[in-house]
Design a protein that fits this description.
- Helices cover 47% and strands 14% of the residues.
- By secondary structure, the protein is α/β, with parallel strands linked by helices.
- Strands 7-6-5-4-3-2-1-8 form an eight-stranded parallel sheet.
């Protein structure tokens, strides 16, 4: 299971204020808390800092790496910002690049970075025509992504398909679409991985944590093996470890028992 810790993102008010103030101590605190909570990668995203992103990406990566060698996921809509972050990463692990998709310009500009830095890559099911509406749309776009990346030497084990979770509040079929998409893509490409911004499912609805936690369980059941989320959410992480145990993916329930000892269950 891969957990990309989502908290270092300037779309979050507290993070934006810390970045604007160059409050390194706060950013480092958030980074270390996510590492301690079990994040596999730490996402680094300042994509909404228009006109400052290249400078701030450099500052963020250097600030985080001053206190931890934990793997980073460099996240930006700007390929130049991705390159800035990737060039600063310490050696010793495969970086994660967030993200590539089937929009012509995006695929063309991000692919060289995936190859140059030998990275894992989040591959979004988006194309020039826009976002997918059905599970079949997602399968078609995922096929283009996996085969297009494969032709360039990117192995399926380094590809993390994001099927695009849409809000349930705008379409009561959004949850089912994602579940069907994962099943279809998993059947076609058994060696690829998955990740997603899971909390999109509950946008605009009350009791969001309830929906998010149940969506984790449901998506894991059909093959989801990665998430972009807050690893400091103890209830969510508890659900993930419990689900792994129940799905036979936790030998001797070792992760579940460690989670119990850490107090992830009430």
């Amino acid at each position: 299971m891969m957990i990309i810790g989502e908290l270092i993102n300037t779309s979050r008010k507290a993070i934006r204020e810390a970045v604007e103030a160059k409050d390194a101590a706060y950013i480092q605190k958030i980074a270390l808390e996510q590492v301690e909570a079990g994040a596999t990668y730490l996402d680094v995203n300042c994509g909404n800092m228009i006109g400052q992103e290249l400078e701030l990406m450099k500052w963020l990566v250097e600030t985080i790496q001053a206190v931890t060698d934990h793997p980073l996921c460099i996240d930006s809509p700007d390929d130049k910002a991705l390159e800035v972050g990737l060039k600063l990463l310490k050696p010793g692990y495969k970086p994660m690049i967030n993200s590539i998709n089937m929009e012509s310009h995006r695929f063309k500009t991000v692919l060289p970075l995936v190859k140059e830095f030998n990275g894992k890559v989040v591959a979004l099911c988006i194309e020039d025509a826009g976002m997918p509406n059905t599970a079949e749309d997602r399968l078609r776009i995922a096929t283009d992504l996996v085969e297009g990346l494969g032709k360039e030497g990117i192995v399926q084990d380094d590809i993390y398909i994001d099927p695009l979770v849409k809000p349930l509040s705008t379409n009561d079929g959004s949850g089912v679409e994602v579940l069907e998409s994962i099943k279809l893509i998993r059947a076609r490409f058994p060696e690829v991985h998955f990740t997603c911004g899971l909390s999109n499912i509950s946008h605009g609805l009350p009791n969001r944590p309830v929906l998010n936690r149940l969506m984790v369980v449901q998506t894991m059941t059909v093959g989801m093996d990665g998430y972009i989320l807050n690893p400091c959410d103890k209830n969510m992480m508890g659900m993930i470890y419990a689900s792994q145990a129940l799905l036979g993916k936790d030998k001797f329930c070792a992760k579940y028992l460690r989670a119990h000892r850490k107090g992830l269950y009430e």
